[in-house]
Amino acid sequence: MSETNSFDLIIIGAGPGGYVAAIRASQLGMKVAVVEKRTTPGGVCLNEGCIPSKALLDSSELFAMARDRFALHGIVVDSPHLDLRTMMLRKEDVVKKLTDGIAYLFKKNKIERFHGTAVLKGVNPAGRHQVEVALAASSAPNDLQNLLDPPARTFVVITAPKVILATGSEASALPGISFDSNVVVTAREALSFEYVPEHLVVAGAGFIGLELGSVWRRLGAQVTVMEMLPQILPNMDRQAADTLYRSLRKQGIQFKLSTRITGVRKIGSKAIVQFNSGAGSEEVDCDKVLVAVGRRSLSTGLGLEEISVSLDEAGRVVVDDSYQSSVPGVYAIGDLVAGPMLAHKASEEGVACVERMAGMTTRVEYEFIPGVVYTWPEASSVGMTEEQLKTAGIPFRSGRFNFAALGRARCMDETEGFVKILAHLENDRILGVHIVGPRASDLISEAATVMSFGGTARDIALICHAHPTLSEALREAALDVHKEAIHA
Amino acid sequence: MEIKIPEVGESVREALLAKWFKKSGEMVKRDEPLCEIETDKITLDLNAEATGMLTITVPEGTTVAVGAIIGMIEESARMPVTEVTAPVTDLADKLAAPPSSPSLRRDMREQNITPDEVEGSGKGGRITLDDLFTSIEEKSKMPPPSRPATNVVSEAVLPERTNAAELPVSPPVDAVSAPLEINEPAQQFSVRSEESPSYSSVRDERRPMSPLRKRIAERLVAVRQQTAMLTTFNEADLTHVKALRTTYREHFLQRHGIALGYMPFFVKACIEALKEFPMVNAGIDADDIVYHHYYDIGIAIGSDKGLVVPVLRNADHLKLYEIDQAITAFAGKIQTNHLAISDLEGGTFTISNGGVYGSMLSTPILNPPQSAVLGMHAIQERPVVRDGQVVIRPMMYLALSYDHRIIDGREAVGFLKKVKEYIEEPEELLLES
């Protein structure tokens, strides 16, 4: 085995789990190889998920603001028109800058990248895991030559005592309705529509569906969200979800809850969606159907069955608390294992996984992982919901403060939503925080910090918050836990 | 299909089941190594005889008789599916733990300390870094308790996962408790230094001796106590052997697929010398001396498990290349744990080559009931005197350890001198054999 193909650690997948794990492992002194099938690192998160969707959310938010709200501030402009091409190019530029940044970090940390797909080939006599990489054609030197005379796929075998699987997940399809990347699409295509659809039907009222529905609604599309369950964001605190629901409806997004999509008929570039809301079969015309009904772990094609890696019934890799699978030396993190499919959860697991390899005792504290929905107003939460506390029979007190009563929110003309703090009835420890409102995504980190330190509602109440800021809402909500809010 | 401890050799009645490579419930493939067994002579890998699900009935570390059943392979079994169970979170427990910071919780795990062992001096019983240091110091004054096998962390330190946000969070499961590698911090109660831990922090490690190692140890001591071992030295000029090798190397490689080594020359030289000094090829059995009219030469080969000495049977009938091929085959078998006990039994004389490790001069130890052993050493260019001139020659020190009870000094020295002569004038070997 040549020195160049032997490593201390091989990571399959350069998404937010894999690339963070790679950099941390390199910091800890390991010689790391990363196999990635895309030409750019960053995975779904950077290439077709979190980052491009936020770029579009910010752009479309500005557009909607100029159109609908500038007048209120006394700014008179002619009705703005949309240059979707430029908006998309800006989004692509944001993605490129960030993926280039990771490519640079790989170089800086001497992480070797292999562009291609990986298959685990078991352990060699020296006890090292063998990973066969089918190199992507574009990594061959002469592209023109390749076009004329396509080369046989080149394979390399790399080895390491440890392998981390970080291949992530892909969008699930509706039963019986397959994706066609034009009319019935996943979030990836919905981030790159070439025109604003007249009518976009979104299947699934989870955060992906609501975020992309918001983007296209703001840019002028009619948007209908269909959800099988009687509520949106089923795992969210009810008060928060209801507030967001009202707000999104006010923005013109239509909802059909308790609705099952039974079929999609395509007519040219249009489609007729058949659905059932309990009153028999109905139909609606649209030009795009975004299916966002969940994601599925990408555990196939890696040779996992062949080397007897145990998977659960959802196709996720079963791992122990060091993220090691049933095969010693094979680890898995992120969307490939149980838990919420969140980029920051994958990154945390990546760090914990390699630090534990290095003998450290790091653990991911799952109860303090925040979740965010980037609609406008935004929604975020950390810890338990009111419903979960009631089910668990834990005595609690709740404090709440509306942004409508907050100076800064008034100045911004962002008065929708609230901060809600749930604290233990006896020891006042904070059990959950739920925010709907402007920049809820940034506000949640104070809550996550205090909870990680085992803090109480009184702790937040006793910390001086600058005035006038949005963060004051958190302090007022904490005061309200003991019914001592100043501005309520 | 049952997995049995196979017959490994005449004198072997039991074996240590040293290590299972697979876990119970795991799928195994035919011919995949399942476990490692150790006898007092060799270490062997046991391969699966069928594809299926493994059930282990005898845990590793157990000594088992030859023929014993140590597990089963269920051939019809399919891939097992381990249930991912939703986390059972005992919130009451979690809330009982005093507040602390995330980094402090990691420090506590590192020191194997649970929060109830620490008295929190902060507000609401909060544990501070100083509290932890105090607790570590107190604990280090007490006799250290026996160490738990893994870093056991109280559930209370680690408020297990509640549902975090969007989706219910299931924690990684312990169901497949794959063995952790030796990555645990070595010092349990030391105050953690400011530096982050290095990749490996193990300083001392205690491991039981393998049966093979134990047997080697016992035998070596016995040899010292039960024989009258002496060593005599000489040196050989390898100019001719070297020239022969250089001249015929390519030819040899083409004809026999092997690069002619030095060892075959020494085997041949020893056999010729043994013929002249039969006592060196003999052994003591109680009050008798047993003379052997055959030449079974043991070749000592180092491995990571210890030194093993496979035997070249009737080496006097082997050609040079056959000797070389046989030795290469032994080395391969040792690496893959496929050496058979029968390969090690018998032997009338042994050759040990410390030269491969660069040894200049050392005294080999006898391998009873044999009475002598030849030690080869590194070849070095040294100034020597030939015909009144100082010249540079490739020289090797030779050592012969012998049992003085049956071999006299004169015979030992004479034998070694003969070996030296055959090596220096290999043509004579041709004329003699």
Describe the structure.
The complex is a heterodimer of chains A (488) and B (433). With 488 residues, chain A is of the alpha/beta class. Chain A has three domains: 3-46 and 92-170 and 296-364, FAD/NAD(P)-binding domain (3-Layer(bba) Sandwich); 184-293, FAD/NAD(P)-binding domain; 368-481, FAD/NAD-linked reductase, C-terminal dimerisation domain (Enolase-like, domain 1, 2-Layer Sandwich). Chain A contains 14 helices and 22 strands. Chain A has helices spanning 18-27, 43-48, 50-68, 84-108, 143-148, 187-190, 207-218, 238-250, 343-357, 386-392, 407-412, 440-452, 457-462, 472-481, and strands spanning 9-12, 32-36, 112-123, 129-135, 155-160, 162-165, 169-171, 184-185, 199-203, 222-226, 254-256, 260-267, 270-276, 281-286, 288-291, 295-297, 330-332, 371-373, 378-383, 396-402, 418-424, 430-437. Chain A has a seven-stranded mixed beta sheet with strand order 5-4-3-2-1-6-17. A five-stranded parallel beta sheet of chain A has the order 8-15-9-10-11. Chain A has a five-stranded antiparallel beta sheet with strand order 18-19-22-21-20, sandwiched between helices. In chain A, a hairpin with a 5-residue loop joins strand 21 and strand 22. The radius of gyration of chain A is 24 Å and the shape is globular. The mean pLDDT of chain A is 93. Chain B has 433 residues and is of the alpha+beta class. Chain B has helices at residues 91-96, 102-110, 129-141, 211-226, 239-256, 263-276, 320-335, 409-424, 426-432; strands at 2-4, 14-20, 27-28, 33-38, 43-47, 52-56, 62-65, 69-74, 229-237, 283-285, 288-290, 297-303, 306-308, 311-312, 349-353, 372-376, 379-386, 389-403. In chain B, strands 9, 12, 13, 14, 15, 16, 17 and 18 form an eight-stranded mixed beta sheet that branches. Chain B has a four-stranded antiparallel beta sheet with strand order 1-8-6-3, with no helix packed on it. Chain B is elongated and about 95 Å long. Chain B starts with a strand and ends with a helix. Mean pLDDT of chain B is 77; it is low at 77-90 and 145-201. The interface between A and B is large, with 67 and 62 residues.
